[in-house]
Each structure stands twice: as structure tokens, then as C-alpha cells.
TrEMBL record:
UniProt name for this protein: Tripartite tricarboxylate transporter permease
InterPro entries cross-referenced by the UniProt entry: DUF112_TM (IPR002823)
Keywords in alphabetical order: Membrane, Transmembrane, Transmembrane helix
Species annotation: Fusibacter paucivorans
The keyword Transmembrane appears for this protein: yes
Signal peptide: none
Chain ranges passing through the membrane: 17-46, 58-79, 106-132, 144-160, 167-188, 200-221, 331-349, 355-378, 390-406, 412-428, 471-491
Segments forming domain DUF112: 17-439
Length: 504
């Protein structure tokens, strides 16, 4: 605690405070604009750090990280377009709440639980980093495969009323994830001679296309009267839009989601894009009223925003303790360490302990700045709902195209955006859940890559999947999820239907 307080004191200079404030605001803008992200914000500002001291550099970069992750909730709630893959699950209940005239309330819930989730992840990071990092380094591809596979079984849980359509959408997502060079052996698959497909489809343009372009197309074909929102209800909401009693009632959901976010965050390659969806399903499964999810319920926003922000602390653990980035933004931060002549890893705590605790303090201070900026900006942000759609949608689609191109400076990503937009529109028309497709698309590569690595490591033997305790437990949980889902959504309804017919 003494070292943490010392780091906070070192940050309390006028220049550092200005840098953190600017960084948080810019990060929120990057997070809110579809196609941009906290990773891109940090990458663009890395050259700026050449002219700053080490302390000032990390104060700015950490602020961009915090703001970028939280900013994704803005567009997810207001226009049903996640600013980044970390905010996909926020659209499920955030936008329905906004359409019900409670945009201010939805944003308030998102902002507050973004802050609380960040603090939760940081608390775990500060007090348990060495233990969690040493645990993470013992995990092998067997455990990563089992975890990815378990997450994949959750597709059935987010499939809605029709499990078969959910599974079809999930398998379609997995199929799209196999396009390009295969992991490990590099065999080219399903490219049809197109060189651009060698690396497959980039995640960000694909997800933005599936949500942004699709959503715009679906709204364009609606009558204008269908978009009207209850203005009177919106004007009566004050503060964050919810009571202290409602906030305390979310304690269980918050702890479950934040724990999932932290754990998934510190597993390299996973990150908030997976954490928010897994946490959403977990909270739905433990809820007393799971049928209300997707209709504009507070629980859904809490689950998504708590988990994706808690993943910040989780992702920082392997970066600082092992020198292994947990997600895209921490990979950029690893570059910042190199620029300033530092080596992230176990020795960093000994050679530059003051910097480590300064980063801890910066994460906490930037979280406070973030919640203040977003709280006072809510009323201004909600005004976006008053913009006529014939003006709003062309602006949004333009920003999406620019963001898709800026991902890799490649025109092919723009075509990816449009193709996945059309695919999403078709899926919406035949009632195939896009959430299942995205879950399959995100997890397909992880499952295949880790399965191949595990089998290669075991020289073709599948015994380690049974003999390694963590792997075995995760696979058993996955099997239980499958059996329970089949029972609840297929067998039980069939038996009830048969019983009702016999009684009739």
C-alpha cells in the first residue's frame, strides 16, 4: 500500500493529470466509434511517448486503455453497434433499454459497472498478480482447448427459443473461422485462389459488419415511426438512472461477471471480447428470470460491462509479471516498455518497482476520471438519439468503413465489413441469432489452434485431456452444460407436450 500511495503521489502533477484526462477522453472516443479500439488508440499515441518521460508515457497510455474499453458501451447502447468486440454483449440488453426510452439509465448502469468492474480487476491484479501469473504459466494448450470448448458449448445458451437455429448460426461462425491458412501447419483452406483470404477474416471488421451494417440495413427498411423513443420517460431520469437498492441487488451478478472477466483476461489470447459474452451467459444461467434477458434488463448490462472492464486488470497480470500480453492493448503496452528500454516480466518488480506501482495507481486514477467524464457526458451523449436516422446512419456507416480500413490499412477489410453486414441481414431475416455466429467465429480459431497444439505436444495422444485435472474438470463441465441444455430445451418440452396431449 505504501508503494501504491507513492505511485499515486508521483502522478499528481499538472502535466500527468492533463495527460490522463486527455487520454481517457480520447480513449472513450476511440472505443465509442465502431471500427476503432483502445488497441488502435495506444498504437497511434506510441510515437507521442518518445517526447515524454517514462512516467508521463505510461500515464497517457493507461488512460487510453481505460477509456477505450469503457467507451464501447456508448454506441452499443445508443445504436446497437458495439464500439469494439468487448462490448458485443452490451447490445443485447443495452439497446432494448434505450429503445424503451431509458437510454440515460442504460448508459448510467454501463458507466457505473464499468468503473466497478475495473476496480475489481485492479484489486485482484495488485494483490494477487504473482500467484495468478505463476498459475497461468503452468497452463498448456490442453487447458486452453478445454476452456475454449467449454465457452463454445454456451452457444446453445444464447440461442433463444430455437436451439437448432442457434447451433446452425454457431457452426456457420466456426466455418467462417476456418477460412485461410490453418494454424500450426499453414495449409491453405477455402480461399478459392484469393490471396486476400490467406489470413482469413479480421475479427473487428467482421464483428462491426455483423452488427453495424446489419443494424443499419434492418432499420432502413423499417417505417420511420418505428424508431420513435419515449422522450417523456427519458427526461425524468436523474443521476445514473438507478437506485442504490437496485445497485446492491446486482452484487451477485457483479461478482460473477467480474470474476469471469478477470480470469479470462489473464489467459493470453482471450481478453474482453470473450469475457463479456461468457459472463453474460453465466449471469443469465444463474438468474431467477433468464427469459427477460435480451429485453432490456439491468442484469445483462451489468454482466457485460463488469466483465470486459475487469479483464483490464486480468490482462495486465501476465504483462507485468511474465512479459506476456493478455490482449491487444497490452501487446501495445509491451511495445511501450521496449521503447523506454524496459523489460516486462518478473524482474520488472525489482528493477522498476516504482514504475509498476505508478501504473497501478494510474489505472485507479484513470478509472475515476473515466466515470466522472462519462457521468457528466451522459446527457450530451443521449442527444445522439435525437439525430434523424437519415443523417445518423450515413455518418455511422462512413465511420465504420474508415475504421475497418484503418484496422490493417487494407481495402479487403472494408469488403469484409460489407459482406458480413449482408450475411447478418440475411440471418436476421431468417431469425438466425447473430450472437451465436459471433461466438462461433471468435472461438472457432481458439478451439482449433489449441487442439492442434495439444495433440502435437502429446505426440498424437488424447490421454492428457483426461489425466490433466484442470482440463478434465473443464471438459466435464462442458459435457454437463450440453446435457443440461439438451434436457431443458429439447427433451423436457417434448415430454411436456406429450403429457398435455395425453391429458387432453
Amino acid at each position: 500500500m505504501t508503494a501504491l500511495i507513492g505511485g499515486a503521489v508521483a502522478l499528481l502533477t499538472a502535466k500527468n493529470i492533463i495527460l490522463m484526462f486527455v487520454g481517457v477522453v480520447v480513449g472513450i472516443l476511440f472505443g465509442a466509434i465502431p471500427g476503432l479500439s483502445s488497441t488502435m488508440a495506444i498504437a497511434l499515441f506510441l510515437p507521442v511517448t518518445f517526447g515524454l518521460s517514462t512516467y508521463e508515457s505510461f500515464a497517457l497510455l493507461v488512460a487510453l486503455y481505460i477509456g477505450g474499453v469503457s467507451g464501447g458501451l456508448v454506441s452499443a447502447i445508443l445504436i446497437n453497434i458495439p464500439g469494439s468486440a468487448m462490448s458485443i454483449a452490451t447490445t443485447y440488453d443495452g439497446h432494448p433499454m434505450a429503445k424503451n426510452g431509458q437510454a440515460h439509465r442504460a448508459l448510467g448502469i454501463g458507466v457505473m459497472f464499468s468503473f466497478l468492474g475495473t476496480v475489481f480487476g485492479l484489486a485482484i491484479m495488485i494483490f494477487a498478480a504473482p500467484v495468478l501469473a505463476s498459475f497461468a504459466i503452468t497452463l498448456q494448450p490442453f487447458e486452453y482447448f478445454a476452456l475454449s470448448f467449454m465457452a463454445l458449448t454456451l452457444i446453445a445458451s444464447v440461442s433463444g427459443q430455437n436451439i437448432f437455429k442457434g447451433l446452425l448460426a454457431g457452426f456457420l461462425g466456426i466455418a467462417f473461422s476456418t477460412i485461410g491458412m490453418a494454424p500450426i501447419d499453414g495449409v491453405v483452406r477455402f480461399t478459392f485462389g484469393n490471396i486476400q483470404l490467406m489470413n482469413g477474416f479480421t475479427l473487428l471488421p467482421a464483428v462491426i459488419g455483423m452488427f453495424a451494417v446489419t443494424e443499419i440495413m434492418l432499420n432502413v427498411v423499417k417505417p420511420i415511426s418505428a424508431d420513435k423513443i419515449d422522450q417523456q420517460e427519458r427526461e425524468h431520469i436523474k443521476g445514473f438512472g438507478f437506485s442504490m437498492k437496485e445497485m446492491l441487488g446486482q452484487a451477485k451478478n457483479f461478482i460473477v461477471a467480474s470474476t469471469i472477466g478477470t480470469v479470462v483476461g489473464f489467459l493470453p489470447g482471450m481478453g474482453g471480447s470473450l469475457a463479456n459474452q461468457v459472463a453474460y451467459v453465466a449471469v443469465q444461467k444463474t438468474s431467477k428470470h433468464p427469459e427477460k434477458f435480451g429485453t432490456g434488463i439491468m442484469d445483462g448490462i451489468v454482466a457485460s460491462e463488469s466483465s470486459n472492464n475487469a479483464s483490464i486488470g486480468g490482462a495486465m497480470i501476465p504483462l507485468l509479471a511474465l512479459g506476456i500480453p493478455g490482449d491487444g492493448p497490452t501487446a501495445m503496452l509491451l511495445g511501450a516498455f521496449m521503447i523506454h528500454g524496459l523489460v516486462a516480466g518478473p524482474m520488472l518488480f525489482k528493477t522498476s518497482g516504482d514504475l509498476v506501482y505508478l501504473i497501478f495507481a494510474a489505472l485507479i486514477i484513470c478509472s475515476v476520471i473515466m466515470v466522472v467524464v462519462e457521468f457528466y457526458g451522459i446527457r450530451l451523449i443521449v442527444k445522439a438519439l435525437d439525430v434523424p436516422r437519415e443523417i445518423l446512419y450515413p455518418v455511422v456507416i462512413t465511420i465504420c468503413v474508415v475504421g475497418a480500413y484503418a484496422t490493417n490499412n487494407n481495402m479487403f477489410d472494408v469488403w469484409t465489413l460489407l459482406v458480413f453486414g449482408l450475411l447478418g441481414f440475411f440471418m436476421a431475416k431468417v431469425k438466425l441469432p447473430r450472437a451465436c455466429f459471433v461466438l462461433g467465429f471468435v472461438l472457432g480459431t481458439l478451439v482449433e489452434t489449441n487442439l492442434r497444439r495439444a495433440v502435437q505436444l502429446s505426440r498424437g495422444s488424447f490421454m492428457p485431456f483426461v489425466t490433466r485435472p484442470i482440463t478434465a474438470v473443464l471438459l466435464v463441465v462442458a459435457i454437463i452444460i450440453i446435457i443440461r441444455t439438451v434436457w431443458v430445451q429439447i427433451i423436457k418440452p417434448m415430454r411436456n407436450s406429450k403429457t398435455s396431449k395425453e391429458s387432453a
